[in-house]
TrEMBL record:
Lineage of producing organism: Eukaryota, Sar, Alveolata, Apicomplexa, Conoidasida
Major location (coarse): membrane
Tree of life domain: Eukaryota
Secretion signal span: none
Entry keyword set: Lysosome, Membrane, Transmembrane, Transmembrane helix, Transport
UniProt family annotation: Belongs to the major facilitator superfamily.
GO MF, any single term: transmembrane transporter activity
InterPro entries attached to this UniProt entry: MFS, MFS_dom, MFS_trans_sf, MFSD1
Cell location: Lysosome membrane
Coiled-coil annotated spans: none
Name recorded for this polypeptide: Lysosomal dipeptide transporter MFSD1
Residue span(s) of domain Major facilitator superfamily (MFS) profile: 16-452
Membrane topology qualifier: Multi-pass membrane protein
Amino acid sequence: MDHIECISPMVARWILLISISLVTMGIMYSNDTLPAIAPFIFDVFETVYSKEEFEYYYNLLCSLVSVPNTIFPLLSGVLIDSVSLYYLSSIFIGFLITGQFILSLGFSMKSLSIMLLGRCIFGLGSESSLITFNSLLIRYFPEWEVALALSICLAIGRIGSVLSDMLSPMIATILPVYWTLVFGLGILVIGSISVLISLNKYYKECLNMDKIRNNSEIIVNSNNLKRLILDNGNLVSSNDEIISKRSNLKYRITLITRKIGELGRLYWYLAILGLLSYSVIMPFNYIAGPLIVETRYKDISTVTARQYAGIIMSLLYAVSVLVLPILGWIVDRVGERCRLLTISVGLLAIAHTLMLKLHPAISITILGFGYTLFATVYWPCISISVPSNLLGTALGVATCIQNIGFIVTPIEVAFLHSTFRSYFVVEAFFLFISIMALIMCCLVTALDKELCGRLDFATNTNVNISNDLEHLIIQSSYKKNKIKLEELISYKSGNNLNINRTFINSPLSTTDDSDSDQNVKSSVFINAKTTLQIADYPVNILREIVTST
């Protein structure tokens, strides 16, 4: 804890956010490089494959990164709930760097099989690392800053997508094409080093304590109050039975099944909505370049047409870079997430309706606004819809479901285009998926009303002291040796984490010599379902709530 004492929690978490954003930028640059340089890839392999064969292998190359992500994020999500995030981050970062290196090597050798291997390894780390990073941000940012933090991370990450769409065609024109992939590898290496340094310096000890707590499963007697005390880094129980971690496969499978079974109906509606909505964004980006060239720039030189297409494609993510932080700040304070989800999906449908009727720059800009708004609102909805102890599992399952769309949609698009030889049919397919997503938005809204507006709740109207207050207790215990960490705040199972909070009226164990035989009880704990206004409870008052001096 010496590192944390040297710097405030606020500064530490913003340093962590910037570091994570750099890695996210490298991931998104690497993911979007292939669509941006698709014509150049064809030039390299045109002596080996026909155009039809190349389209098949190209879509396979794009979709293969999603194959491991149909299962692996689920496993990583469960691991997030039970293993130190520091070590998970290190493992997933290793997959990213190794995969991108093999992809670059395979391209330089003109070996498609090596490139496919690299994409597969990269896929093992891409979505899983993003889930881990999101869990870190949700863990260390207070609830009224979560959407803002996630939006800033995604906005900086999308700078990588913009750079990929704008710079990759230029780099491929001047230098050998594989240098576009090497550039993405460089961003990944720089960002990964900064993340590991940040975690090691500020959060490693705290994350290891999370691992100790999460690796024990507590059985609570319904007539007794659950009480855990962190004693010299080890968990002990006063009157509850603790079952130690079991590493056998059967137990792990049972644990995963149980956690998935605890995810509620609202979560599953949101997961299906994410599958449909992201299927009309990311897979479209794979074919946006050829679509723009064939429908708008047939009559100009190929090099110029590719550069124009790259600039237009960059508008999709340039919008994100500009407005994501603003939208994140607004969503944190306004709420109304169901309405915003519906508006965002409506923008996606409008964009695909107009794609072949208006200039693609206009349609892609509309698509960018829809994507930006959806991404800003969707992931906080996932975190709100599940208990905090299931967050990693929830993110993992949602990511697995989305990657099914990332695999199936590009293959279906390639089949439709090769069969009908028209992008009109392709856009009709995207529009159909958008309409299905709108129907899911209506179902989510109806269910949320049954649950008393869980998603529409504005987080700035209550205080979530779960993260910062816990850190305050830990820090105080190390500094003053007076307070030992307890489960101070618990949530009612399945209820809204933002609305229903239970403050346990338990004693705070002390080691002060003057009253070593006494348990000092706080007199200011409150009942469940009580709302605390932030303005009424500044940090110094919250400190008095926890500590007894």
